[in-house]
Amino acid sequence: MDNYSVLGRIGEGAHGSVLLGKRKSDDKEVALKKISVKKIEDGIPTAIIREIKTMQVLHSPYVMRLLDHFPKGTGFVLVFDYMPSGLWEMIHDVDSSLTESLIKSYMKMLLKGLDHLHKNGIMHRDLKPANLLIGFDGILKIGDFGQARTMWKDKNGKRPYTQQVATRWYRAPELLYGARLYTEAIDLWAVGCTFAEMFLKRPLFQGETDIDQLALVIKCLGTPTDENWPGHAQLPDFNKISFATSKPESWDVLLPGVPSSAQNLTKELVKYDSSRRIKPHEALNHKYFFSPPKEIPERDLPRPHHDHRTEIKIKELDGANFHMFQDFNLLLDSVL
To answer: Where in this chain does the record put each Protein kinase domain (predicted)?
Structure first.
């Protein structure tokens, strides 16, 4: 840490904290991701080594860059460019409209970044708005590679991975059914959910538990069949729970007021059969990107100010407190 000074705290994660810092050599602002190591006598955890090795092979304007890494006390520190905002903040910023042109720009950058990952044999495994960061130049970058890993290069590709990956609202149905033999297509499902969220301003599938999440997906997309999802009945947890038979909802209902080309792109990503989900390079050639309005040129993208992330979180907290106060007054009125 001798080369950096700490200016404040950005946030907390599952494995440590993220601090705002400054590189002493040139006063560049950076994000310092501190990862705790519970048993230092066991050496550096595989997850940390994997995250570092993963990021070292990635070189894309739409993927976060690892600037430095070093041990610190009983933990490890990863150093990145400081990003003042993210897609989650842009979605929840009530004072700034997330226009269709801007949605198209963010989606294009996300797909380009993901295409780079997959072409380098890397699955992210935790794509969601909170892990898509936005810099001072307005460029969106894929971040947080804590769950990322390289794909097996076996001839048959049949070595298992852990199924305990991805945040629930963006978790592909094969993972919800306990699959350990899966592909990078789990990232495509998450991209489809994120794309829909930019329009809806809320998650497309917002389950409270894993079972509730699966129930919501089935209610919206309809009951899986051998036609739309070959082999689903052989997934590890398929026979552990059953759901009522349902027909798929119309995409006009799932994405009301959303252009048909955007609905179609979401549909191509959010499919039961992972082998049929549209690949990033194919999605970039989808008709959605060639229909009006045009995306915003990168030089004209909205540029978040330094404290945008903190400002949005404070507004969200104030809004939550306001609604809680309203609910309390309503309850009080009903009692009196």
So the answer is: 4-289
